[in-house]
Sequence to fold (1018 residues):
Amino acid sequence: MTDPSPPRAARLLLRTLLPGHLHDSLAGDLEERFRAHAAHDLRAARRAYWRDATSPTLLALRRESRGMHLPPGSPPDAGPGDGMARSLASDLKFALRTLRKSPGFTAVAVLSLALGIGPNTAIFSLVNAVLFQEWGVEEPEMLIDIYGLTDDGSHFFNSYRNFELIEEGASDVFEGVANYSFLSVRMEGASGQTEVVLGEMVSGGYFDVMGVDAALGRVLVPDDDAEGAGRPVVVLGHHYWQTRYGSDPSIVGREIRMNGRPYTVVGVAPESFRGRFSPAVGADFWVPLQTYPHIDPPKLTRGDFTISGRVRDGVEPGQAIAAVETLAAREDAERQARNPERRSRFRLGAVQLSEVRLHPDADRLVTAMAALLLVSVALVLIVACVNLAGFLLSRAAERRKEMAVRVAMGAGRRAIVRQLIVESMVVATLGGVLGLALGQLAVRALMSIEPPLPVPVEIEVGLDARVLFFTAGTAMVAALVFGLAPALESTRAPVAATLRDEAGSSGGRRKVGVRGVLVASQMALSTVLLFGAVLFVRSLEAAGEMDLGFATRTAAVVDVETGPAEFQPEEQASYNDALMRRLQAQAAITGVAFTNRMPLDLGTRNIAFDVPGVDPPPNANRWVLEVARVTEEYFDAMGIELLDGRVFWEADRMGSDEVAVISQAGANRFWPGESAVGRTLLPNPDGSDAITIVGVVDNAKIWSLGESPRPYLYRPMAQASAPQAFTVVATGNLPPGELAALVRTEALTVDDRVFMADVGTMDDHLGYVFFLPRMAAAMLSLVGVLALVLACIGLYGMVAYSVSRRTREMGIRLALGADRARVVGMVLKGGGALIATGAAVGIAGSIGLGSALGTTSFLLGVAALDPLSLLAAPLLLATVAVLATYLPARRASRVDPVRALRTE
Amino acid sequence: MPPGLPSDFEQQVLLAVWRLGDGAYGASVRTEIEERTGRTVSQGAVYVTLVRLEKKGWLRSRLADPTPVRGGRAKRLFRILPEAVEGLRAARWAMDRLWEGLPEPGSGRAGAGR
Fold:
């Protein structure tokens, strides 16, 4: 125990807490006691020291010591803790006083900054919610997601067979494997109302593999998923439990109804785990796979599963990924051996969950979108900061005399710079707080726009530490970077000359250079932003005018689900027939059709077949086309044009020849230059049940607006068993909304047990297709306009200021007999050069942006280098800039020369 | 103009400084109070009172030479002023008046504060 000393941190605390002159003697007292104490019990001594160092009486001591007279012989007050804190406090006080003295400057500066920071906070909050949230699982780097790989290498879902394959074949690397799929159900709420919610059906080991425990009750266990397991059980999502059941803990053990069936609630998931759809969009429930047939019988055979494996202790994630790939290769070889004719490959893709944000394939697009938004708002912030810098520069110039006086009085340069930095920090803080508030308002406004998806999606966008940190960081960096330069600049002036007024106006000359750069860069930045906004608005317009291949305005679109009624197949058929007859009998309805797949509805149904005389595509054994079942009047009701042959008629029934109508793109692919009518498709390898093409129709957009025409097949609904869920398309001489209501009433009249999730118009149906372009256009327009407003304020302020600084010069010129128009012209020429430079750089930047965007799929039907978009923005800005130069210049030129000469 | 009577704790601090004579500084005052009254007090509380008493004109302080046992820091030595002695007497007198005619507590700890 050689010479123990008191705890360092506690000593440091004392040092910062105590005024210098007291610190020494008090710390000495404490140390003396500590040493006496430490001789027999070091730990107790340390504890005692800590107690003394954190005693609240020290704060009282600090207060008490103010105004205390210093004993003779005590050193001047230079304690490190005290000096810094106290002068910072006085700097702060002084800064607040100066800012209060010029409320106009303060308001404009703070507002500029807030307008710059607000959008950044908003967009960052969004991006944060979508991209930066944790999955809430245990050790995501040890969780491997497994996807089926398609021929083009994209990550697709798995079949149930893949799950069995991995569970059996990779147990040496995985301690557990889970299989799950996303689904939506009709959930009956506490008060009997029904809503569609999103959830997951999961294999028994799911929660164990995720490493998630229940917040309440229990999670699902393998027994729940065992074949013939007793009553169907469900685990509710935390958010759903909170919002729909008011966090009522008695929910566990209660029965709720999903798709009309009773489920017993066994638990509630923790708040941190929101399922595997996305960290931002939470699952509202989890049900075991085996009870899934209760919800939606025909789907268990479907291949829309995602598989996750938990890597065993001592196994590297990379080994597990390799094991999955080896397994897939072996399976592929086996399948090849069984069927040498086979051309498609079986491949699996495995990814560590910690590497995935949403989905391996979507991540890049989503990240690109996020980056685009972040960059554009960052540009707005830069424009705002340039404003701030401009204001600070002007102010610094105005205050040069004040600074010179302070330097002359003995203030160090460091003190003055610190003072100015504190001032801009205060502005930044105010701007940051206001910006945060604006940003949160913007987020709330954005969130109130419901994305038109089949399932209501609630994204939780919160104000978390990351957002706060981001905002504070942005504000502070803005203040430091843009406040420091003017601060340094203002202290550089020669003191004596400034005081004698000699540098009064001519010294401003050199700084016009800095200000000029600022003006030009604002021009350039806002040109680029406006160009981007115009591009997206035009893209939205183009999307609206795009020919979708079907009529978009007039029809009513109603989704009818008969699942809850639990019809037997014959009942189902008679319900569908009865509904069709009733609708056809309505005078207001002129055309009505049913289909199991609407264009642009995010769904997918495929059929595989051989085409006699046409080779299958490379890497595949057979052709696969997307297909929709439709009733006879479908093409009429949808406004899809018949190009060749016929559409379906009543004779196309069960038992008659199988027929199909193909899209023009399909006909062109299989039989280019020839008629498709009368050709056959062979859905069965043995050639039975051949489908005859009876007609060719115009192409319609199926997946997205940007797609090129797709081969697509239509088959008569009457040649398959009656569907339990279908869409009614109706046209007539009523507004579409009323038509939709009519369809709904009729559907319930036939049987009131059916469910209609979506009752609306074709426009509603297409809402989601236009949602993203609409959002992008709206956001970027807002950003562009904001940048323009900021640029105008800044431009005007800066130009007007530098013109007014030249009042004296103009006065001299006028007094010497210069022509008024020439003086104005001289000023205009100076400003014009800056504006032209800015615009030129801006246009160059826009071309860069345009060609960068051109390589992405963000824009629809607009050439990325659209000349109109390119010129509109700079012209607008140039007009503002010219006005900003001309008006003050004219005013300055009207000034009485004598008075002008007197101005400082 | 003596600024009123010293409070309980102020009396304790003043008495400790008085008792310690030339050796009164933060740590010794604290020890004196703790040993005589059996109560623990924080150094900060002692110090804040010393500073207040100095401001009131009851104590005067000066810096002594630094010593190694204090980490090389100087002691601030306190000395009691006549005004303080006056104040202490007045306080004692007031207490005694109030005690007059009341039974003395057996322990003899009267006036030690409560």
Q: What stands out?
A: Chain A has 26 helices and 22 strands. The radius of gyration of chain A is 37 Å. Residues 69-82, 503-511 of chain A have pLDDT under 50 and may be disordered.
